[in-house]
## 1
Amino acid sequence: YTIVRPYRLADAPGTGCVEAARGLGGRSGEITRDDVAAAMAACLELKSTRRWAIDILAGETPLREALAAI
């Protein structure tokens, strides 16, 4: 399993860059629906995300790089 917990959803086009962690410590922000969908698809392929709940929001790190670093 992998639980993806996005912050407030935005309708803008995706950027492909996120901030992702097992806990973002009460931060606030938003993330596009496109980036949430891309993150969920990437989580299916990455072993580093298995068996974790992951918080994601818009950021400056390329999506796969941010998820792989978890």
Note: DSSP finds two helices and six strands in the chain.
## 2
Amino acid sequence: HYRDKRLVPYLAAVLKDPDSGVVEASLRALGRIGEVDVHPQLIAALRDSRAGVRREAATALGLLRVPNDK
């Protein structure tokens, strides 16, 4: 399932794909998984030239479970 944390490295690698649909799907899955380790990649995706990618990155960031000390 897309909530399996073992998928995080693979989903993060897909963020460089030229197909925005692939990147957007990966961002959605990363957001659902909620692994805070992908925070830097999600921040970087906010600077993507594609509006859909930026939107999904912002949504994924909102779903992360960031500890209070970060």
Note: The chain has four helices and no strands.
